[in-house]
Structures are given as C-alpha cells and as structure tokens.
C-alpha cells in the first residue's frame, strides 16, 4: 500500500489519499469482479499473441512473437509479481546495444512449467521448425536448442503448444509411462503431413530442449506415422493418467460442424496412442472413434482457437467461438462445455453461451480452470454485430465470463448448467476497426492483424484472473509508412502488451481475491534494490533504481516527480551497463488514445536534458504488413519538446534519502491535460541506451538495438491535482514465533522510507544461539498480492557478519501473520505469529 506523509498544517490529519483496494471478505454477497490498473508489460517492444504463465513460486512470465520478419520473440520475466518485466534472452545478457539476442524465431510462442519451477519456452522458427529454451532460475541463465529442437527434425511446423506431465507426490498413478519425469510434450500443426491442415504432430522431451516423435501408431501397411486429429487446438494433460487431450472442429457432410475431442494415451515410453489411429491398411485416421463434444453447430468452432483446461477435480473444460457459415455475425459467440473424469471425459454438458451484450461478436477465446467446477473465459468483444474482418469502425474490449458449474461431493461436474458472470476487463477499448481473421492472407485484404491470433488468461495462487492482451488503441504507425491514411503496408496501432489482474470478487478457488484499486491516485511507490544488471539475476544499479513517481498540475505546468536512489554520478551508472551512452528516465501515460511522456536524458558528462511529447513508432515488416512496432520517446529536436527540469540529490544519496527528478512539462506539449483529465496506466522507467530514443533507425530496431529497461514502477491512473506531499511506504512488526529448536524466538523490524530514519531488523532465538541485529538494508520489496514485505541486507549474529532475508506477512490482512528469517550461515526459521503484529502500509 502506498501512503502520503501529510503536513500537519493541512488540518486534516494524515488523510489517506491512495486507495489500496483491499477489502475484507464478505460472508454473504461477494463483491463484484474488478481489475486493478492494467500493467504495461514492455514500454518499448510490442507484439501480437501475448502469452502468460505463473510458475509455482508466483513469478509471472510473458512471451509473444515479434514476427518472422525480425526472427525473434519477446520473453519477459517480472521482478515484482507482474507489474514490471525484464527481457529474458539466451546467450549474452541483454544490454544497451542489443536486448533480445535469440534468433531464429519470431512466430507463435508458448511457455509452460514443471512443479520445480523449471520453465519451458517454444518459438516458431519461421515455418520450418521450432526453437526451444529452458530456464531453472527465472531467466537469469537460459539454455536453448534450434534445429531440430521441438519438431524432431520434421520441417513444416506451425502453431506449437506445450503440455507438461509432472504429477505431484501422492497423485494416483494410472499411467503406463515408466520413464523419467517431467515429461514434456509439444504439439504443432504439421504443415506437410496428412489430414486437415496437415494434422497434428506430437513430440516428447525430458529436458525441454531436444524432442523426439511421440506418436506410437502408424498407418497399417506403411511405415508412415499418421497425423492425429486436432491441429491448432490448445491441449490439456491429465496428471493422473498422463493422457493428452485436443479438440477441434469437424465439417460434416450435412454442412454443419461438430466439435470433436481426441485423446492420446501414453505407453511405457511416453509414446501416444490416439483414438483416431488408423485400423486398416490404406485408411486414414478413424474419425468415428472421436468423442463428440457438440454437434450440429452452424459454423466452425476453430476460430482461433479451441482451448481445453483442467480444474483441480479433473473436470475438463473446453471453450470455442463459432464462425458462422452463413455470415450472420450474431452467431459469432463464445461457448463452454465440461466433462468429468468419472465419465472418461466422454459425457459433455450442453454448450453454454458465455458472451453477451455489450459484446456483440467474439474472437480469440481463451480459458483457465481453477477449483472444482470453476473457470474463467476471456475473448475480444466488439460493440457492433458485424464481421470482425470488416472495417466498420467498431471498437473492441476484453471481456471475461466466470463460470461456476454444480459439482458432486467428489468435485465432479454433474452436467447441470453453470452460473455465468460476465465483466468488461479493459478500462477503455483496446482496439478499433477490423480484426482480420485471414491469417497471413490479411495483407491481401489490407486487414489489420496487429493483434495476431490469440491472447490468454491464467490465475495466481489466490485464484485471481491474470489476463494478458494487446492494446493497439494508441493508433501508432511510423511516419511516412501510411501515406494518405492508406494502410496497405503498415497498420496503425502498436500492440502494447498489457496485463490486467483481478483485484476483487470471487476467484477460481471459491474465495474472494484482493488487490489495488484502479481508482485515480496521485502516484505510485516502487521497490528498491530491483534495478538489476544483468536485468534478470544481476546486481542493483542505484542510478537506475526508481522508488516512486507522481504527477501534479499547477496552471499550465504538469509536474512529473520521480525519486531515484542516486542520480549524482551518471558516469558511474553508465559504466555499470554494457554499451550505455545515454541514460533515459521516462514517465509515460495514455490520455484518450494517445501515449504521452515526460523524460530526462543524461550522459556520463552529466548534462541532463528535459523533454516531453507524444510517443512515436518504428515499424518492422513481417508476414502481415509492417509489424511489430518499437515505441520511442523522442528527445528535443527529434520529435520531443524542450521542458524545464531539475535533479536534486543529497550529499550522500541512499534508498532512504534519494535523489529527486522533477520535469516541468508545458501542458500544450502533452495534449492539454486538465484536473479532470484521466491519465491512464502511468508508469515510470529507467532505460540504458546506445543512442537517443528519437534517433532509432529501422535497422537498429530490427537488431533490437533499442533502449533497455533496467527498472520501472507501473502502473496507476491519475487526475493531476495540485502538488502533494511525497509518497511513502512502511513496514513494522514485533512479536514471537516458535523457536527453531524449542521455545520462542522474538523479532522486531521497522522500515519507513518517509521518516528518513534507518531501517532495522532484530531477531533472537535463545535456544538456537541466535542473536541477530541488522546493519544495512540492500532491498525492500512489497507484494500487494500476497500482502508481504521482503527485506534483504546485512548485519551481525553474535558479532559475526552475515547477510539476511526476512519475509513478513501482514497480520491484519492474513491473520495471524507470518515471519521468516534466513541467515547466510544456514540458520532458517519461519512460523506463524504467537503474539504481536505485522503491519504493512
């Protein structure tokens, strides 16, 4: 929670002006489903088809393709539970000269995890093969494999998906597989094989890098491995049986469609036997054996894409969107059905339409199931009942429906229909005009494909929905690329990767979730100690470490105030980050449909410049016109306007006594905001760059020689008011937890970044001989989702120097509270409070 240190002379006490969004859980009617301020995942790179995954430790990761024209994809890891992200890349660490160094790739990405937190990444290598990568440390180190990688040497791959078999200890074992776990399956659309769209190809791996064929059956009388039914459908895997599931549409002879399910059962070697395996020589797949989910559909259910998901009771959910054959746009809706493990996933409930007004048509459905009978479905919904590919001036939003199906005492879905709660997720339309559904053929129709073909939803450990989507409402296009408004070559709208997290209402585990409100505030607090270089797992760079950001308005001046640990020595800061010639500190926001910014840029010579204006775009060409876009924040003379500003630093800057960067922006240079204007998704970022942002060329953007984000705080909404006192956070705790060996251990800690008093931690466990006292804090991280604070630093235990880490949970919000401490000599203790309290603000 962020708070204000209020001046006593105001006569109103210390009024709390920043909403925390934390509400007590209600025993009766649950609060409505709402979302916090969406987070801008990457303020520089944009792409379509964003994917999201949360590992067992709660770390949030995002990926997405930037197009086969660039031959790379974006893979990002968050350092603060999904509010800001940093580039993950195989090979050399990302630098100011080149951030993403991972070609070949650039199309269709997917990420998945095993129970240990090892992450598996797959990227489309043009349409030839796949690139695979893994990380066991959150992206600090990465291993990768190119050809043959995930396609097992078979050329002609498209639209790959990952499924990981890694059952938890104690899970009933009904699988014949006897090999090592985890077992990673990769399915892709086999462009050269038999069957519709080439059919599905399945490969398997035990390391996530090298894959071999995973299909057990061949066409009788031949040596050829057949391609099972189900290409493009997003698969699911059952952790009890090891079976894989994939659903797709089937065009019947009567002109109607069926949604069919294919099930693959592993043998001892992990090879899969599918239901439709050919049974006689000369015959193709035996489609008569497939499971019927829904029949007599008036259109194809394969409209990018059919998605399967298991809940914790092994009920299998499926969602799809119809593409009507008669062109009636009112039929283009999203549906859900479910089947229980008790039925062998063969008895499916009647399809339920989950999309409704004001979402008039649907595209790109995605789903995530949670507790028994519960699932969230998301889609892009239009305000007009028109063909999505038509250019009728429609606007699009992200919608979500939460379904709760009746279940038995064992958690099995009963077959009865669900309750459905639909909400609009996006605070403003995220796209305008057409969403072209013709794939790479969109270029021929001048169709906008900047969103590509899908987006995704997952849930965190509380059951809160986390939705990753593209926001192209900014309308950005490179100057000169759309002459006279003709968008044949380049489509307007940089696809800003955006993450919305559910902050209230029921989660998918049956309890209400909580999080920050999206109500306008005056600013935001950041954590200190997270400005890392290398940007994943590196050491902190104080000269890039952003602690807070706020915006105020007085007359015709919009004042952007950013607190940064140490701006006093830009030469030392630049020397820390490879290839840095310019240090850039940019605060950006969206007002209406325009991205604005206020910024300061410095060099090792310590000659700062202050500037502001509208964000611009450098556009790169790929399979569907010129996409992606690289967003730039031009300096004065390059598209930005000169502003006034200052840097004020104490004699010895520190996290508790930082430097203050002030940028005084003429409102005329940023769209004339007033006190009633809403500035959305305000975020502040520190970048290291080899060149000025506004001077970025297409060749540099193609090589990803663009500013590298080192730190950021994101995001908040604001209606700029008169200047306010500085933002502050504090954590206080004292009490007892069980001793490690016996008895009780006492703790006391205090951290407050407004009162300028030193932070302190004291801990004593007499029966273990521990008597610790802190000396210095190196990082403090607040987690407003888990209601915890993590403090890292150094101190002494009985006079011996050592490092420490404490994690404390707010006892008022998560009673009775929890305290844990880890010392570098190996001592670890954690437990619930026996008495005392922990309060985070």
Explain what the structure shows.
With 841 residues, this protein is an all-beta fold. The chain is built from 2 helices and 59 strands. The protein has a 9-stranded antiparallel β-sheet, with no helix packed on it. Strands 45-42-41-40-48-49 form a 6-stranded antiparallel β-sheet. Strands 2, 3, 32, 33 and 34 form a 5-stranded antiparallel β-sheet that branches.
Overall SS class: mainly beta
Strand order of the largest sheet: 58-57-56-55-54-53-52-51-59
Mean pLDDT metric: 90
Kindly state the percentage of residues in helix.
under 10%
Provide the low-confidence segments as ranges: 1-27
Q: How many E strands?
A: 59
The rounded distance between the terminal residues' Cα atoms is: 5 Å
Give the C-alpha Rg: 27 Å
The biggest sheet, with number of strands, parallel, antiparallel or mixed sense and barrel status, is: 9 strands, antiparallel
Number of helices: 2
Shape: globular
The amount of beta strand, in percent, is 35-45%
Observed structural traits:
mainly beta; 1% helix; disordered N terminus; 9-stranded antiparallel beta sheet; 6-stranded antiparallel beta sheet; globular; 42% strand; 59 strands; 841 residues; 2 helices
């Amino acid at each position: 929670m962020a708070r204000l240190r209020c001046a006593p002379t105001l006569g109103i006490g210390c009024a709390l002006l920043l909403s925390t969004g934390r509400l007590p859980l209600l025993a009766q009617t649950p609060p409505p489903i709402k979302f916090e301020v969406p987070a801008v995942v990457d303020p520089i790179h944009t792409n379509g088809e964003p994917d999201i995954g949360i590992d067992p430790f709660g770390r949030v990761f995002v990926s997405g393709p930037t197009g086969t024209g660039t031959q790379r994809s974006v893979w990002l890891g968050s350092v603060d539970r999904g509010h800001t992200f940093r580039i993950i890349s195989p090979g050399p660490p990302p630098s100011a000269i080149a951030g993403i160094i991972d070609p070949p790739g650039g199309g269709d990405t997917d990420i998945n995890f095993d129970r240990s937190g090892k992450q598996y990444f797959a990227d489309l290598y043009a349409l030839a093969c796949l690139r695979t990568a893994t990380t066991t440390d959150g992206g600090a180190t990465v291993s990768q494999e190119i050809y043959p990688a995930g396609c097992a040497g078979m050329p002609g791959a498209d639209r790959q998906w990952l499924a990981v078999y890694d059952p938890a200890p104690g899970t009933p074992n009904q699988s014949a597989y006897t090999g090592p776990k985890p077992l990673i399956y990769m399915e892709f659309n086999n462009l050269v094989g038999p069957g519709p769209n080439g059919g599905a190809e399945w490969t398997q791996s035990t390391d996530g890098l090298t894959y071999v064929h995973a299909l057990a059956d061949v066409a009788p009388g031949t040596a050829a491995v057949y391609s099972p039914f189900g290409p493009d459908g997003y698969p699911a895997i059952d952790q009890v049986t090891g079976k894989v599931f994939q659903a797709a549409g089937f065009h019947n002879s009567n002109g109607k469609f069926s949604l069919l399910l294919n099930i693959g059962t592993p043998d001892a070697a992990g090879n899969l036997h599918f239901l439709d395996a050919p049974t006689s020589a000369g015959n193709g797949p035996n489609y008569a054996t497939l499971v019927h989910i829904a029949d007599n559909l008036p259109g194809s259910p394969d409209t990018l894409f059919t998605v399967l998901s298991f809940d914790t009771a092994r009920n299998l959910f499926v969602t799809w969107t119809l593409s009507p054959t008669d062109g009636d746009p009112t039929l283009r809706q999203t549906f859900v059905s479910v089947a229980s493990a008790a039925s062998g996933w063969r008895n499916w409930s009647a399809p339920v339409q989950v999309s409704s007004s004001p979402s008039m048509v649907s595209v790109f459905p995605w789903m995530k199931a949670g507790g028994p009978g519960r699932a969230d479905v998301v889609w892009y919904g239009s305000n007009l009942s028109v063909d999505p590919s038509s250019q009728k001036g429609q606007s699009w939003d992200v919608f979500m429906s939460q379904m709760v199906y009746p279940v038995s005492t064992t958690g099995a879905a009963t077959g009865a229909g669900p309750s459905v709660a639909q909400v609009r997720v996006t605070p403003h339309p995220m796209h305008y005009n057409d969403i072209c559904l013709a794939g790479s053929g969109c270029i021929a129709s001048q169709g906008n494909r900047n969103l590509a073909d899908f987006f995704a939803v997952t849930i965190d450990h509380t059951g809160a929905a986390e939705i990753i989507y593209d926001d192209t409402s900014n309308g950005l296009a490179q100057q000169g690329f759309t002459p006279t408004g003709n968008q044949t070559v380049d489509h307007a709208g940089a696809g800003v990767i955006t993450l919305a997290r559910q902050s209230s209402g029921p989660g998918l585990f049956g309890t209400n979730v909580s999080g920050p409100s999206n109500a306008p505030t005056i600013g935001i607090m950041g954590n200190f100690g997270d400005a890392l270089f290398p940007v994943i797992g590196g050491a902190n760079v104080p000269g890039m470490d952003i602690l807070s950001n706020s915006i105020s308005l007085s007359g015709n001046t919009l004042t952007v105030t950013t607190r940064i640990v140490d701006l006093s020595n830009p030469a030392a800061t630049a020397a820390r980050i490879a290839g840095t010639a310019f240090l850039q500190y940019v605060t950006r926001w969206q007002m209406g449909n325009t991205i604005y910014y206020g910024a300061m840029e410095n060099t090792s010579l310590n000659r700062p410049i202050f500037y502001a204006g509208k964000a611009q775009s450098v556009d790169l060409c790929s399979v569907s016109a010129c996409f992606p876009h690289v967003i730039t924040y031009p300096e004065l003379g390059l598209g930005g306007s000169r502003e006034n500003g200052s840097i004020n630093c104490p004699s010895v800057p520190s996290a508790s006594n930082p430097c203050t960067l002030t940028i005084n922006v003429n409102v005329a240079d940023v769209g004339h905001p007033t006190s009633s204007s809403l500035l959305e998704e305000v975020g502040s970022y520190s970048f290291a760059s080899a060149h000025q942002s506004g001077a970025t060329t297409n060749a540099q953007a193609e090589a990803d020689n663009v500013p590298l984000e080192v730190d950021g705080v994101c995001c908040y909404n604001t209606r700029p008011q008169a200047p306010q006192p500085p933002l502050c956070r504090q954590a206080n705790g004292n009490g007892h937890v069980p001793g490690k060996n016996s008895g009780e251990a006492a703790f006391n800690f205090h951290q407050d970044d407004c009162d300028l008093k030193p932070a302190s931690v004291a801990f004593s466990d007499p029966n273990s001989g521990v008597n610790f006292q802190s000396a210095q804090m190196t990082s403090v991280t607040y987690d407003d989702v888990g209601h915890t604070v993590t403090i890292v630093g150094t101190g002494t235990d009985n006079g011996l120097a050592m490092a420490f880490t404490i994690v404390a949970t707010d006892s008022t919000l998560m009673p009775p509270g929890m305290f844990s401490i880890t010392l570098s000599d190996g001592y670890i203790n954690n437990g619930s409070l026996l008495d005392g309290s922990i309060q985070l603000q």
